[in-house]
Amino acid sequence: MEKELAKLVALTAFRSSAELGNLIPLLREHCDEDEYRHLGAAIAAVSAEISGQILRNIFATYPQLEAEIEANVHKFGRAF
Question: Domain coordinates of the chain in residue numbers?
Fold first, then answer.
């Protein structure tokens, strides 16, 4: 995979995880405790899978891309 495509995939993976994470407060507020725990665990599992299956492979191939995204997160509070 060429670098620009890898960057697009990585940023999409970050956005997907962030969108799912943004649901947590809404779920906490509007779901019963069991439903919240179940959905929260599912969101955590999906986010971990995104990291493990997508980001790890991209960053192994393009370590400079990982550094670039980390610098953006540090500077702007977000990957993109």
Answer: 6-75
